Amino acid sequence: MTDATALAPVFDVDQQTFEADVLQASLTTPILLDFWATWCEPCKTLGPMLEKLATEYNGAFRLGKVDVDGQQELAGMFGIKSIPTVVLVKDGQVLDGFAGALPEGQLREFLSRHVQPLAAVDAIEDATAQETPEQMINRLQQEIAAEPKKPELKLDLAVALMQTGQIAAAEAELAALPANLATDARAVRLRSELELAHALKDAPSVTELQQRVQTDPADWAARDQLGVRLLLEGDAEAGLEQFLTILQKARDWNDGQGKKRLLAAFATLDDAELVSRYRRRMASLLF
């Protein structure tokens, strides 16, 4: 992937660049594929709207343009029967899509199920940066009482509850969110944090788990719990190594647990360099 392509909100896709620019790139940022053609009249309406939204969303997703006349093999791979057709690829897999030229309102509704504009997320973080989690909980509970029909406040509350270790309360607030907020970036991160926290219920100590793995390197359950313990206790890289070993040696164990743990870990870590490095290593094993 070229630097220019990596930064561009809209880019062209062909067979040669598909693996790097779409599959591998989607491990970091969702890729929306627009299958179009120069002779397609509805494409001329849909395409500019998609390009405007890709810019407006400020990097929350990137738009890959696939000319079906020039890229018939790619169109065939996705089973494209009519154009325009739009497909959302995330974590290396097709997540959603639609056919036809939707109006802008429906496009925004489609996107809201999977991504949120990064500028909006940043604004929320900036506004609350000076508060402690306890202060935030108190403020949000008051705001929810005053405006109970604003579900986004409940998501903020769920995040704050998790930060203070109130796992059950955070989970209850998360479960009560409406569908349009279930894929908010913060909801996705919180869900991953809860998943990892639950994995440690009744788990042995790091020392005991290390002994079990040393005795039997194929004790995937012990290795999985060891990875989670290391991750949550501050040794993120060592934890990621355990998950990567599971993915490499037992890819299908427990319905692909190694990959699931890596994706959950990526969603919770703030070390961009570490996440990027292990995403590439994961991609090299998957593709």
Question: SSE layout and pairings?
Answer:
Blueprint (H helix, E strand, L loop, with lengths): L2 H5 L2 E3 L5 H7 L6 E6 L4 H16 L5 E6 L4 H6 L7 E6 L2 E7 L4 H9 L5 H10 L5 H14 L4 H13 L3 H9 L9 H15 L6 H10 L4 H13 L3 H14 L7 H12 L3 H15 L1
Parallel strand pairs: 1-3, 2-3
Antiparallel strand pairs: 2-4, 4-5
Helix pairs in contact: 7-8, 8-9, 8-10, 9-10, 10-14, 11-12, 12-13, 13-14, 13-15
Termini separation comes to 15 Å
Per CATH, what is the topology of the largest domain? Glutaredoxin
Please give the CATH class of the largest domain. Answer: Alpha Beta
As for the number of domains, it is 3
Instruction: State the CATH superfamily name of the largest domain.
Output: Glutaredoxin
- CA-atom Rg in angstroms: 21 Å
Tally of contiguous helical segments? 15
Short précis:
Helices cover 59% and strands 10% of the residues. With 287 residues, the chain is α/β, with parallel strands linked by helices. It folds into three domains: 3-115, Glutaredoxin (3-Layer(aba) Sandwich); 121-196; 206-286, Tetratricopeptide repeat domain (Serine Threonine Protein Phosphatase 5, Tetratricopeptide repeat), CATH 1.25.40.10.
